[in-house]
Amino acid sequence: VKSEGPKLVPFFKATCVYFVLWLPTSSPSWFSALIKCLPIFCLWVFLLAHGINFLVSHRSASRILAGLIFSAVGDAFLIWQEQGYFIHGLLMFAITHILYSSAFGMKPLDLKAGLLMGVVSSSCYAFLYSYLSGPFTYLVAVYIALIGFMGWRAVAGMQLCNDLWTWTKLSACVGAMLFMVSDLTIALNEFCFPVPYSRFIIMATYYAAQMLIALSAVETRNEEDFRKRS
Fold it and tell me: Quick one: signal sequence residues (predicted)?
């Protein structure tokens, strides 16, 4: 944590800039899109700082970087969601969840965690269903399935029962859960009813989730450094 912390300073500063400026969503602009995406850009730099060779040789890290790229594009689309770009943002984040799921991998399988995430995801969709109409009835179902699958793979990687968890696996797990909280808040606020302080909740959990998932990518690098020192 001590070795990675300083590399995240630009991310924390960019996040503070976003919350301090708190630009109104009623007047979208390229400047507001830049400010919103800036913390994610900093996470690109965080991963790139570990070296191109590291990203090329470790698929999980490169897939998380790709997920962050699609996330930034999704963020930009959502700036103009009132102008009809909400579905575009939804698509970008759906791709992000596919990339993160691939990065977390399918081992161990942990069907119990999968069943738990399936129940949680199904319950969320069952609640939202009566508020949905048109194409969102199906799009939201697919999206919830994808983010639920991503959450399953992150939780499965913890291996708590076998006492094999690491701080980076914990980061992935907590990050995935926060991402689900952020997206559920968006869904409730967009389709169901106004959520008090929704924007703050959405962005705070979103930035924290992306940071933790980016941190989870450095595990393989840390293992290599440990072997070299040994």
Answer: none
Q: What b/e sequence results for 62-86 when a residue is b if at least 16 CB atoms lie within 10 Å of its CB, and e otherwise?
A: bbbbbbbbbbbbbbbbbbbbeeebb
End-to-end CA distance of the chain: 19
The predicted model scores a pTM of 0.93
Residue written as tokens 């791709």?
A: 95
Angstrom distance (rounded) from CA 136 to CA 110: 31
Side chain identity at residue 140, one-letter code: V
What does the block give as tokens for 1?
């944590």
Comparing C-alpha atoms, which of 72, 90, 68 is closest to residue 81? 90
**Helix, coil or strand: residue 108:** coil
Cβ atoms of 183 and 148 closer than 8 Å: no
Low-confidence ranges of the chain (pLDDT < 50): 221-230
Contact yes or no for 109/149 (Cβ under 8 A): no
The C-alpha atoms of residue 172 and residue 189 are separated, in whole angstroms, by: 26
* C-alpha to C-alpha distance for 193 and 179, rounded to whole angstroms: 20
Structure tokens at 125: 């969709």
According to the model, what pLDDT value does residue 1 have?
A: 59
pLDDT for 222: 47
CB 58 within 8 Å of CB 105: no
